[in-house]
Amino acid sequence: MLVLVGVIAGLALAPPSTAQPGSSVTRDFVHNGVTAHRGYSAAYPENTMSAFAEGLRAGADWIELDVFTSADGQLVVSHDATTGRFADRDLRIAQSTYAELRTLDVAHGFREANGLTLAQVPRQRMPLLSDALRLIKGQHRARLSIQPKDGSTAAAVALVQDLRAQRWVGFNDGNLAKMSLVKELDPSIHVFWDLPANGDLDTELATARDRGFDSLVVNQARVSPAVIAAIEEAGFESGAWTVNDTEVMRRFIGWGIDRLYTDSVDQALLLFGHDTRRGLRRGLVGHWSFDDRRGASARDDGSPNPLRDGRLRGDAAFTPHGQHRGAVTLDGDGDHVDVPFQVLPDQAPAYTVSAWFRPQRPGHGRQAILETTGSWAISLELTNVDGHLKYSVRTDGTSVIAESDRTPRAGRWHHVGLSYDAATGASRLFLDGTEVTSFVDARERGTGELTDTTGLRIGTYRDADGRFLHGAVDEVAVWNRVLRPEELSRLGRSGRR
Length: 497
Hints:
- There is one protein chain.
- The chain is an alpha/beta fold.
- The protein folds into two domains: 24-271, TIM Barrel (Alpha-Beta Barrel); 279-492, Jelly Rolls (Sandwich).
- Helices cover 19% and strands 29% of the residues.
- The protein contains eleven helices and 27 strands.
- It has an eight-stranded parallel beta barrel with strand order 3-4-6-7-8-9-10-11, surrounded by six helices.
- The radius of gyration is 25 Å and the shape is globular.
- The N and C termini lie close together (6 Å).
- Residues 1-19 form the signal peptide.
- It comes from Actinophytocola xinjiangensis.
- GO terms for molecular function: phosphoric diester hydrolase activity.
- This is GP-PDE domain-containing protein.
């Protein structure tokens, strides 16, 4: 018996460093081009203290929020004038006191939309703007951008001044009068002027210059290389709002945009290239170690997004007898792990997936080790009769299905690795550290990006109504890059029981 040395085990994601090549730091603040829209709202309830704190932890250089005025004159954080969309009761903010608004659970809508429990997403109250300002003043790396949704601009500026928070604060909105008022009241405060989908850019640039604005953030429908170039040549920072499609992010970044407003903070940071992790941590976007021991949730410590935690279905259960510490056992009759949130970005041009698995009955029906949901962009399985290891890759250009001549041994731990690179059209399958089959499709070169996915299933295929694996799975990991053959070999030769 060899002892597993933990090559991948415990690869918790340290949030991508925000002080790195390609970003600069001025007056202690980081500049990496990622604004957390309503906080890290892809993963936490929007406009809550948890969304702001996690946006900071993930590494965004600006946190954006929205402000309304309550009936008793309090500046509260909310995007909507009424609370029915996101809270457990519908109140009109302008007609409600803050004491009344504090009784709301503003995490209710997020919890319901994502099928989560109260234990997973506890109740949260509506923050005051002052709460967010005190949070942001407690650090010196990121700043807070305030969007006044009503007539609260002057009051918000006054509060910022009272707290001496000007260095930590900016304002953003498309309303010219509001943003002009900010500069009139305090020229030191950074202003992001939001531009609509249509407009006369020359006139807008002249207006922004006249009013002393700092950044122009354009509706994403209007963004083009020419618009970005014109904004930057005029001396302004360029930006786009609000961009959550990763393919659009990638395109805008390729055109040279300075800033993205986004809910998906982690994806934007990675696409901007702000990932200084080394070795096997570099490019890691998901990692399920199954060391949780109890409960029905498998933590993903490869991402800061808790929605990527796996959910045990059927009678799937944790066991301490994995390839490295814990694993998940599957009985072949409905057991699987469901990751309901997208792991790889849409149109991913490259990836690697890795897992340890212990089949009990290879060759007894098709058994999926894992497969992406939405489409079989990534699929690993054992074939029906021979139990051969097989993989599938589905892209926008074509589909690749390749079967090896290897049947994993029953009752033994095996390592499987699969990589795909659209730049070369090459896909490669590894078993226990050795390449066992590959395929290169010339039609894929430069064009064969993965079809869109919506999640990941472990121990079954995308529809989760068959092809269940009988055995156990451990150490599932996904990267947004092609691991080198020696890296995959290292993973596959790291010891087995």
